[in-house]
UniProtKB/TrEMBL annotation:
A Pfam family assignment: WSC
PROSITE patterns: WSC
Domain WSC intervals: 142-234, 245-342
The family this protein is said to belong to: Belongs to the WSCD family.
Keywords: Membrane, Repeat, Transmembrane, Transmembrane helix
GO terms assigned for molecular function: sulfotransferase activity
Gene: Wscd1
Entry protein name: WSCD1 protein
Length: 577
């Protein structure tokens, strides 16, 4: 019996070792298969989205799984019925969208995961080595390569215009953008930032120090760390000159002392608008002011704010001859040059003691408001979400953790007691629900700058979208009114119509002091990079009468709630429609 037991024990020990080795072999085989598939995905991705084009994912998301960015921006409306009617029943969270929307979201989720993994793998492969070779300058660039220069962010020479594209920046795009704005030089830094100007940087650097590959163009150099790759773009100007826009701002009363008001001037017989605009562009001024044969260049200032225009008849002559009656009035034109007095931005040097939200319903102009706040205060705004498109265009606070308190305020579309009470105060941006719904529908199907097609508007998605999102528009405002600790209500329409007064009110709420000249600079750059070009008119009315009745009830509910909290009610243009 003892002998049999010994044999059984010996067999089990052998089986144990066998199982161990089989398990180890299985794991090794699986790992090899995973590595092989990963290599295949990366090779396929190189023919489509490059590693440099991949979206960056915040650190906090890597531990909890990756979600589709805009899906995070669609917090569900409150479950309660807002206006006591049966026309709209709040659907459950997993039943809110039609199956087609769920399939679309799943597809977007898979795509984002692939992009993140692709970016993660590519980041492990250092682009530069000890024997790094300087990237060759592509021969197809029309501009002349000048050299590599030191870039000092505090005393930047090329500061006439600034452009960001952290995903698709190329030398040609930078050159063209600078040429269209009448600049002579284009400089690229960090592989993704473009700067324009008419004066070369003072300090040259070694050619090999410009070693950053352009984010959107392999094999081309776009500066380096604190290093500018500078190109002369004069060869592009002849073609770009036709596309430059010189905008007529109007007829204004001339300041008492033009020489003190404007830093540069020119007296030229037979002066034309083109001559004055070209002169001021070379001097890097956004305004060209003409009085008779005199040309003045400068910025909007407290002395000359461009707020109170005069009757055009007071400026005698045509816009081309540009002679002003009795010398008391002048013609003002906007040159292609960007006003850069308010383009510098940074993170807060110390953590903010007050946690401020910039809250709105999607499509209510939150991105535009962030653009205004960043340029007015000089500080980045943060975001509860991560939007790669916004980050790529210069909203660097997108990548910062939303609770870092290094940003002046944090964008959010969230509603609900827990989410709202995390903030100490909030700017609540409200827009006409009809316009908000259309703007968000356009963004959903065509991105930040596009328009949904007629097919989208006439599909089943549009009525489903209105039924789901209209109640959210109302519940969002009602929740912030109920749970918000300290609120500043800003109506999008008021901000658009009276930009400076409303923006000053917002800046004061953020406890930041800014100069009048900086606010005027913001007004001069009011549109930013995320304004849809024109209002694409549809040949049909997207809202049915049933939709209008539903939305109007929500409007009346919100208006009553605002007045009940001693806030100004909704603008009259909201209802009736």
């Amino acid at each position: 019996m003892a002998k049999a037991f010994y044999r059984l024990q010996k067999f089990l020990r052998r089986t144990q070792f066998l199982l161990f080795f089989l398990t180890a072999a299985y794991l090794m085989a699986g790992s090899l298969l995973l590595l092989q598939r990963t290599r295949l995905v990366i090779q396929q991705g190189s023919h489509g989205t490059s590693a440099n084009q991949a979206l960056t994912v915040p650190d906090e998301m890597t531990g909890v799984g990756i979600a589709e960015p805009r899906a995070l921006q669609n917090p569900h409306p409150g479950p309660r019925l807002l206006v006591g009617m049966d026309a709209l029943q709040e659907p459950a969270l997993d039943q809110r969208h039609s199956p087609r929307w769920l399939v679309s979201r799943n597809s977007e989720l898979r795509q984002l995961r692939r992009r993140w993994f692709h970016r993660f793998i590519s980041d492990q492969e250092p682009m530069q080595t000890a024997g790094f070779k300087v990237i060759k300058h592509a021969a197809e660039h029309k501009g002349t390569y000048i050299g590599c220069f030191t870039d000092d962010s505090r005393e930047r020479t090329l500061k006439g215009a600034v452009f960001y594209d952290l995903r698709k920046m190329t030398v040609a795009n930078c050159q063209e953008a600078c040429a269209e704005r009448a600049y002579t030089y284009a400089g690229l830094v960090y592989g993704a930032e473009c700067y324009c100007g008419n004066t070369l940087p003072a300090t040259a650097s070694k050619p090999e120090e410009c070693n950053s590959e352009c984010k959107g163009e392999k094999g081309s150099v776009c500066g380096g760390v604190n290093r500018l790759s500078v190109y002369r773009v004069e060869e592009l100007q002849a073609g770009a000159r036709r596309r430059r826009n010189v905008i007529y701002r109007g007829c204004f009363r001339a300041p008492e002392n033009l020489t003190d008001t404007f830093p540069a001037s020119l007296i030229q017989p037979n002066l034309t608008v083109e001559m004055c605009s070209e002169f001021c562009s070379k001097k890097e001024f956004p305004l060209a002011v003409i009085r008779g044969q005199e040309c003045y260049c400068g910025f909007p200032t407290g002395r000359f704010s461009l707020r109170n225009g005069a009757d055009g008849l007071r400026c005698s002559g045509t816009r081309n001859t540009s002679s002003a009656a009795e010398g008391k009035y002048c013609l003002v034109y906007q040159t292609p040059v960007q006003d850069t007095r308010c383009t510098d931005r940074k993170f807060l040097t110390t953590k903010s003691k007050v946690f401020v939200a910039l809250s709105s319903f999607p499509g209510a102009g939150n991105t535009w408001a962030r653009h205004l706040i960043e340029h007015a205060t000089g500080y980045y705004t943060g975001s509860y979400y991560f939007d790669g498109a916004l980050y790529n265009k210069g909203f660097k606070g997108e990548k910062d953790h939303w609770r870092s308190r290094r940003t002046i305020c944090v964008k959010t579309h969230e509603s609900g007691k827990t989410e709202i009470e995390m903030f100490d105060s909030a700017i609540l941006l409200i827009r006409n629900p009809y316009k908000s719904l259309m703007a968000e529908f356009n963004r959903k199907y065509a991105g930040h700058l596009g328009y949904a097609t007629d097919r989208n508007w006439k599909s089943k998605e549009w009525p489903d979208f209105v039924n789901s999102y209209a109640s959210w528009w109302a519940s969002h405002v009602l929740d912030w009114l109920k749970y918000g600790k300290r609120l500043l209500i800003v109506h999008y329409e008021d901000l658009k119509q009276s930009l400076i007064p409303k923006l000053r009110e917002m800046v004061e709420f953020l406890n930041v002091t800014v100069t009048e000249d900086r606010l005027l600079c913001v007004e001069n750059n009011r549109d930013g990079n995320f304004k849809r070009s024109g209002a694409k008119q549809k040949d049909f009315e997207p809202f049915t009468q049933e939709m209008k009745d539903l939305i109007n009830r929500y409007i009346l509910t919100v208006d009553k709630a605002l007045r009940g909290r001693n806030f100004t009610g909704l603008p009259r243009e909201y209802v009736p429609r």
